[in-house]
Amino acid sequence: MKALTPNDQLFLWLERRNQPMHVGGLVLLKPGKGQNTADYVHKVVADMRTFTQPVAPFNLRLKSRLGMWFWMEDDEFDLEAHFIHLSLPKPGRIRELLELTSKLHASPLDRGKPLWEAYVIDGLEDGRVALYTKVHHALVDGVACMKMLQRSMADSPEIMDIPPLWANPNLRGSVQRSDAAEGLVTLLSQVASTAKTQLLSLPKVVKEVGRSLWQTSVADPDFVSVIQAPRSVLNRRITASRRVAAQSWSMERIKACATGLNLTLNDVVLAMCGSALRSYLGELNALPARPLVAMVPVSLRKDDTATGNHVALLLANLATDTEDPVERIETIARSVNHSKERFASMNQTEIMNYVTTMMGISGFNMLTGLAPKLQAFNIVISNVPGPKHTLYFNGAEVDGVYPVSLLLDGQALNITLNSYAGKLEFGLVACRRTMPSMQRLLQFLEDGLLELEQAAATRRR
């Protein structure tokens, strides 16, 4: 058995019916010119059903001991409980696909089994085939998911007979079986090691927390505090219903804006989101007077491990109180750089402990729901790096890779994107009841990019 880290266990503690804690991915496949879609789906589904023995981490289920969660191998794995083939009703538009994805994503995973599910979905009117997969966040983070995706695809359409994600030998991890005595010894050893690491990080964490509190008191304009986020419709309680929306944007367009404004690609992405949220909330007559704050995960992963979570969190001022797009993106960039400079002086453990301390107020609310007015941020915006070249799965071209993330009570909208083959693929998830007509945000994101393109063109002239 292997104990979950405190960060990974947090995702289990946070889970409730209205906030299942899994992340997902929607992949669109385009069969080649010589491939009949029905024949392709029949063969792929039949082949997938032959892979009844998963590799790590897909063969792991939870076990509780001494008040902690552990991963252990599932000796009674049943593929039929994890892999399902579905067909869309005619006409099979993208709209119907996203409706189905929304319903699948709203259902929690069964903790009595390995925490993942995979679906093949056909019936799309354009002949494409969809793969939707969801995995519990306690098992993997977004960066690990993207790495697993790349390893489960091929670089050429000529490569066939590729195993499905859960049985791909390239993802095989080392899992050591242990009896109860060994598990107890391992637990005590891990607790001792963790305690030592935490104690060594304490002086630096105390110093940085004190520095942050001092900066808040003197109102540093580029520092985003954990008590700065305004109340908004984004931060109401959520239901179990979900709405998923997705769209791609050319990486070339976004990079051209970044170059023209002498900023980064991530600055442009956050500015697009800030502009879209300003327009969406303005349309609802619900735009706060103070600027919205985004929580932006930053990967600390330095290896190719598949399991666990290795991320820090920084706060970005989205400047939604600002009408001018150039002023907005420059405000965003300064707030992000402020956090990055702080993290540069800390190691990974110190960063994680600093973030945990500073986010304690918001974390307490998420765990208990007792203080809904205490929040450190209004929305989560994640950017996960992905493959730069086109991938293939058993002869079909991977035409799109869209992330489908999770929601928390008081966080009714999530925007996650990943790069793929010269595009940025945006996946938006919202509580259907809390965020009406959420798909309008896709048009507002395009409007935000157009604003920045015009600003960049003006600056070049």
Write a structural description.
Pathway: Lipid metabolism; Glycerolipid metabolism; triacylglycerol biosynthesis. InterPro entries: Acyl_transf_WS/DGAT, CAT-like_dom_sf, O-acyltransferase_WSD1-like, O-acyltransferase_WSD1_C, O-acyltransferase_WSD1_N. Residues 308-452 form the O-acyltransferase WSD1 C-terminal domain. This protein is an alpha+beta fold and 461 residues long. It is built from 11 helices and 15 strands. Mean pLDDT is 84; it is low at 173-201 and 301-310.
Q: Helix and strand layout, with pairings?
A:
Blueprint: E1 2-3, H1 6-14, E2 22-30, H2 37-48, E3 60-65, E4 68-73, E5 83-87, H3 94-106, E6 116-122, E7 129-136, H4 142-151, H5 180-217, E8 243-250, H6 251-261, H7 265-283, E9 293-299, E10 311-317, H8 325-343, H9 348-358, H10 360-368, E11 379-384, E12 392-393, E13 396-404, E14 413-420, E15 423-430, H11 440-460
Parallel strand pairs: 5-6, 9-11, 11-14
Antiparallel strand pairs: 1-4, 2-7, 2-13, 3-4, 6-7, 8-15, 9-10, 12-13, 14-15
Helix pairs in contact: 5-9, 6-7, 6-11, 7-8, 7-11
Domain O-acyltransferase WSD1-like N-terminal: 4-269
Pathway: Lipid metabolism; Glycerolipid metabolism; triacylglycerol biosynthesis
Keywords: Acyltransferase, Glycerol metabolism, Lipid biosynthesis, Lipid metabolism, Transferase
Summarize the entry for a quick read.
This protein has 461 residues and is an alpha+beta fold. The protein is 37% helix and 21% strand. The chain has eleven helices and 15 strands.
